[in-house]
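Today's session is about reading a structure prediction critically. Students often jump straight to the picture, but the first step is always the sequence itself: look for stretches that repeat, for charged clusters, for runs of hydrophobic residues. Only then move on to the predicted structure, which in these notes is written as discrete structure tokens rather than atom positions. Here is the chain we will use throughout the hour.
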Amino acid sequence: MLELRIIDVELVIKRNKFETQLRIMVLSLEKIWKRAQRKFFEAFNFINKITHFFSIGEY
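Below is the predicted structure for this chain, in token form.
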């Protein structure tokens, strides 16, 4: 009976450690995703400015 309890505790600890690692992974992925989105929007705005500049020059 005592052995079973010890195994249960070990499993809970392992599960908590795994969930913590998953949470950290998800958080870092979200951070990377937000950074990538920001870079994309910066690049998109830059391209828009360039095309706008050239379209003004055509008139």
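Discussion point for the tutorial: The chain has a mean pLDDT of 88.
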